[in-house]
Design goal:
Elements lengths: L3 E5 L2 E5 L2 E7 L2 E3 L3 E5 L6 H8 L10 E3 L2 E2 L4 H5 L2 E4 L11 H12 L4 H9 L15 H13 L5 E5 L7 H16 L4 E6 L2 H4 L5 E6 L2 E7 H7 L3 E6 L2 H10 L5 E3 L2 E5 L3 H13 L4 E7 L3 H9 L3
Parallel strand pairs: 5-10, 5-11, 8-9, 9-10
Antiparallel strand pairs: 1-4, 1-6, 2-3, 6-7, 11-12, 13-15, 13-16, 14-15
Length: about 300
């Protein structure tokens, strides 16, 4: 039995003369939440559509649970559920009716719909028209629809896009529950590193169709070394003062920036500045955003 839920081997895909997926070799372990990260237009949605066989892949490049996709299309698709872009929901039907309708199409018992409404936290809104659902509720209903056939693998394309903080937390908690309690594997795409970091066990970073990084979340966290930003008066003097004491510091905008070491180190630097007549108005730990991580990955020196 393959230990990988998804594997692509040197996958390429073109729209006309434009190469949108470039020698992509994904490895998504069973039971993982795989964060598929990249800016808008990086090739994430195209890759997901290829995995779902909505776009045709070259033979022997895409494998689902160890089986080549083109030669095992129906069997592979039966093991997958997906939410790509907007969920396919009938607004004039209630949440429950949307699920019942899909149950008929899939030949699934209606009791499964009731169980899934509870799983995604929509039991209280089951008889409400889907058109009246919030965006977060619609996303959760879309995930319920994707889960109806009890797939082993879920492909979620930007599931938190446009959600308010509560909606984001709900989707995040649902994904964790699905992997830890229901033994699903999830590939979730996003352009938000900060969001994926809270849920993913593994990461793949893609830009311009190329895979720039792949591995466990801890590997990226080591790469994404935090910095300390200090808001202080007399910036030039404060910078020179710290440099004279062997502290590597740079002037960035209206603050000083230096490597973050520890909370106690921050306190020591703060005390050092204050005791020497500087007024410190702010200390903030910062991590690099996805754009700057791309620069680090592509230009390590």
């Amino acid at each position: 039995m393959s230990e990988l839920a998804i594997e692509t081997k040197g996958l390429n895909y073109h729209f006309g003369n434009q190469k949108v997926v470039d020698e992509l070799s994904l490895q998504v372990p069973r039971g993982s939440i795989y964060g598929f990260l990249g800016p808008n237009g990086a090739g994430k949605t195209t890759t997901i559509k290829i995995l779902l066989n909505l776009l045709k892949s070259p033979e022997d490049t895409v494998f689902i649970f160890g089986q080549e996709l083109n030669h095992n299309r129906i069997a592979s698709l039966k093991r997958m559920g997906s939410l790509v872009e907007q969920p396919a929901i009938y607004g004039h039907l209630t949440g429950k009716e949307n699920l019942y309708n899909r149950c008929i199409l899939l030949g699934v018992n209606r009791t499964r719909a009731i169980d899934l409404l509870q799983l995604v936290g929509l039991s209280q809104a089951a008889d409400k028209k889907a058109a009246e659902y919030s965006l977060g509720m619609k996303q959760r209903l879309g995930i319920a629809l994707a889960l109806l056939a009890d797939p082993e693998l879920l492909l979620l394309d930007e599931p938190t896009n446009g959600l308010d903080p509560n909606g984001i937390i709900e989707i995040r908690n649902l994904m964790v529950d699905l992997t830890t309690k229901h033994h699903k594997t999830i590939l979730v795409s996003s352009h938000l590193l900060s969001e994926i970091e809270k849920t993913a066990t593994h990461l793949g970073i893609i830009n311009k169709g190329k895979l720039l990084y792949q591995g466990q979340i801890e590997g990226l966290q080591k790469l994404n070394k935090p910095t300390l930003e200090i808001e202080v008066d007399r910036l030039d003097n404060a910078s020179a003062f710290l440099k004279d004491r062997g502290i590597a510091v740079t002037l960035v905008g209206n603050c000083l920036q230096l490597p973050f070491v520890s909370a106690s180190d921050c306190a020591s630097i703060n005390s050092l500045l204050v005791m020497n007549g500087f007024s410190v108005s702010g200390l903030k730990q910062q991590k690099k955003d996805l754009e700057h991580l791309f620069l680090d990955i592509t230009n390590p020196n």
